[in-house]
Amino acid sequence: MACGYRITTHEVDADFFEEAKQNQILVTQMRKLLGADLPIPGVSVSEFRALNKCSDCQHNKDGCYCAFEFPEYDTADSYDCNHFQLFQSK
Q1: Of 71, 66, 69, 72, nearest to 85 (Cα)?
Q2: What Å distances lie between residue 55 and 14, 31, 45, 68, 73, CA to CA?
Q3: Residue 53's domain spans which residues?
Q4: If residue 65 lies in a helix (H) or strand (E), which one and from where to where?
Q5: Cα dist. 51→4, 11, 31, 45, 75 in Å?
Q6: How far apart are CA 60 and CA 38, in angstroms?
Q7: CA 37: distance to chain centroid?
Q8: Which one in 47, 48, 62, 83 has a CA-CA gap of 20 to 30 Å to 39?
Q9: pTM of the model
Q10: Which helix (H) or strand (E) holds 21?
Q11: pLDDT tens digits for 26-64?
């Protein structure tokens, strides 16, 4: 039984390859200009991290740990937590 792993190569003309490289550069520059590479377009990564803090999450338990017990709790890596829910007082 095969594992499904494959390596496929395709030969292309040098002209096509150069054009593809230039297109990749243009698309990358456009994404940066439009902010499409940011978590929220138009909001810098540092601003986004400030918005999404563990201390403001409803899963924050006593300011000490996450209810999901994620090791990234209150670290720089916690900014993109998909379980983040803003704490809302009743």
Answers
A1: 66
A2: 54, 32, 18, 14, 9
A3: 15-80
A4: strand 65-66
A5: 42, 47, 22, 10, 14
A6: 25
A7: 8
A8: 62
A9: 0.39
A10: helix 14-34
A11: 988 887 777 655 556 666 666 766 666 788 888 888 878
Return the pLDDT at 30: 83
State the residue for tokens 């040098």: 14
3-class state of residue 33 by DSSP: helix
Reduce the DSSP state of residue 61 to 3 states and report it: strand
Q: Would you say residue 76 lies in a domain?
A: yes
Given a contact cutoff of 8 angstroms between Cβ atoms, the answer to whether 56 and 27 are in contact is no
Tell the residue number behind the tokens 């209810």, with chain if given.
67
Looking up tokens 């209150």, which residue turns up? 74
Determine the 3-state secondary structure of 42 from DSSP: coil
Q: Which helix (H) or strand (E) holds 60?
A: strand 60-61
- Domain assignment present for residue 75? The answer is yes
Domain count, the chain: 1
In a domain, 68, yes or no: yes
Give the separation between CA 27 and CA 22, rounded to whole angstroms.
9
